[in-house]
Amino acid sequence: MSVLVSRVSALLYPLLGACFWASVAGYKPVIIVHGLFDSSEDFKNLKMFINQSHPGTNVTVIDLFDRSASLEPMWKQVEGFKAAIYPIMQNAADGVHFICYSQGGLVCRGILSTLSEHNVNSFISLSSPQAGQYGDTDYLKYLFPQFVKSNLYHLCYTGVGQRISICNYWNDPHHRDLYVNSSDYLALLNSERANPNATEWKKNFLKIKKLVLIGGPDDGVITPWQSSQFGFYDNNETVIEMQEQDLFLRDVFGLKTLAARGDLIICSVPGVQHVFWHSNETVFHTCMEKWLE
């Protein structure tokens, strides 16, 4: 009897192992890019959620530009993250997924726009100021105690200011011309200023399979919160939703194309404060889980 059991086990265990490997091998690697003042240590819960839902998934939180280093200029961060991420892409024949939190969502847009050979399937933008930032938040008071939102443009729209990450996407709706002419990052990504690379960047960006935009009204940091879904203020500080924004209507980098393809997903969750998006299990199951296959 024991010989029979041994023989059955010898046949069965490799078969079970093969089935298990087949089930996990289908999960694409997940790359997480953190936000302002974060580090890789802050994403333990999100990694756990992914591994519980999709066992065996290779999850990498890129450990670069942590804490105060996250204030480095955005293009510098794009190049640094790109260099760290590219080898992961090269080793992923079926592609990878991006989860990019807060400022990291804008870093990821820079990577997706400028890296022609990327193989990102789902780009999950987790409470990221995609249309810019304009608010008197605790972050602003901490970083620039002598400024409020109405006068920060005096610093941000200068050569010195543009060496600080937050100024690269500071979008003052009352000083639109200054923003368009001074922003070295967001105005170029959004083709709000003439960009000779706009056609190529759009082509690169549209290689993604899904764009998932996550945000909510109780965020408390991203201002307006609709910026996480490409809505933003007009000059009266009335929020204009994404579908009415010029960058959508003119399809300057591909939002309208993604929507027409059915590949633009909007996920709004109330009751979540900014620092808890990546540790909230409901947010993961509601807005992220299904896009990480």
Automatic annotation (TrEMBL):
Gene from which this protein is expressed: ppt2b
Enzyme class: hydrolase
InterPro entries: AB_hydrolase_fold
Catalyzed reactions per annotation: S-hexadecanoyl-N-acetylcysteamine + H2O = N-acetylcysteamine + hexadecanoate + H(+)
UniProt keyword terms in alphabetical order: Hydrolase
Molecular function in Gene Ontology: palmitoyl hydrolase activity; thiolester hydrolase activity
Pfam family, one: Palm_thioest
Keyword set includes Chloroplast: no
E.C. number: 3.1.2.2
Name assigned to this protein: palmitoyl-CoA hydrolase
Similarity remark: Belongs to the palmitoyl-protein thioesterase family.
Domain of life: Eukaryota
A GO cellular component annotation in the UniProt record: lysosome
The UniProt record lists the keyword Hydrolase: yes
